[in-house]
Amino acid sequence: MKVAVACGGTGGHVFPGLATARELLSRGHEVALWLTGRDTEQPVLKEWDGPVTQIPARGFPAGISLESLITAGRLAQAVWQCRRKMRVDLPNVLLAMGSYASVGPCGAARGLGVPVVLHEANVIPGRAVHLFAGGAAAVAVGFEETRYHLPKANLTVVGIPLRDELTAAARLLPVRESAVSTPFRILVVGGSMGAHRLNEVAPQALARLKTEGLAFAATHLAGRDDETAVRAAYAAAGVAAEVIAFTKYMAPLYHGADLAICRAGASTCAELAYFGLPALFVPYPHAAKDHQTANARALEKRGTADMVAESDLTPEWLAAYLAQNMRHPERLARLREAARREGVKDGTQALATLVEQCARRP
Questions:
Q1: Distances in Å between the alpha carbon of 98 and those of 36, 95, 207, 226, 332?
Q2: pLDDT the model gives residue 142
Q3: Is 205 found in the same domain as 68?
Q4: CATH no. for residue 103?
Q5: pLDDT digits (tens, 9 = 90+) for 33-78
Q6: Cα(319)–Cα(360) distance, integer angstroms
């Protein structure tokens, strides 16, 4: 069958879409990616040698303004452009991973009678998924809680597709000998958008831990903008932390850590659960519809992670939280077991199967 995959926009849409596209390709289907041409999509173009259609699109700003009206006009133009291109080589099904990048392909597919499968990674659906959910052949989601936000949709919980290189690397790693390491290993993921507060607080908190005589090892992904300042903060405190700006090789870091301190984007939630890594989520407070808080609360409810609001995250609080878990490792062992049992699953194969089931037969 011919499958179109609309996965443009941010990495949270691009990489799950690419993983599913590769799975569908391995099953013998013809797969084409539909992107927007943004810089965030360039890594995909380097890893994908199949057909790509690029239709420029922009996110829809909040509220009603001249800018929102202009964006609406551009999205309508994107629908027209997608329709013109799609009808030349009509796919049997469209998989859309959400975000504004899905509006053009979804609008075109609906007008041409092509079945649409939507994927929503977060608990709270984005506007594009809300817009097209009613007419979609299926809405695949990562969290069961999304059902309350889309009560009338044909919804299936599949999980969140994970990056191929992550799952492949995980299969090569040795089995952990114990639930908690000696020394205790802390992973701080402060390289994502809006994670500056984590980069400020974590070095101060770990400096406090050192003064208490607690043994630990830390790896801190700080992002390129904060790398120098974070490294200097650890050095000034005499804490021997490994500071990295960015790495594609997250599997060894997830596998070796005892606890992660991070934001609560959907892909991060799924990756941590895949490795059974307990987490302290600090949701990004300015995320659309506060969706990161909803993600974090869903996993906290499952007993796989803890959550703290950014407004409550202080060096004193974080140091006390870490010290408590280091002194009572059995609690983290329970979190790790719950993450493996109850966390968000890798949804690549399940999503690919759902796409096959919804496709219009040639």
A1: 13, 9, 41, 30, 34
A2: 96
A3: no
A4: 3.40.50.2000
A5: 999 888 878 877 888 999 999 987 766 555 565 665 666 667 788 8
A6: 56
Could you report the per-residue pLDDT of 247-271, keeping only the tens digit for each? 989 999 999 999 999 999 999 999 9
pTM listed for this prediction? 0.92
| Host domain of residue 286 | 168-342
Question: Torsions phi, psi of 218, nearest 5?
Answer: -130, 140
**30 forms bridges with which residues in the sheet?**
2
What pLDDT was estimated at residue 66? 60
Gap between the Cα atoms of 195 and 309, Å rounded:
13
* Residue 2 CA to its chain's centroid (Å): 26
In this structure, are 229 and 310 located in the same domain? yes
Q: Are residues 261 and 241 in the same domain?
A: yes
- Mean pLDDT over all residues of the chain? 92
- Same domain? For 330 and 227 the reply is yes
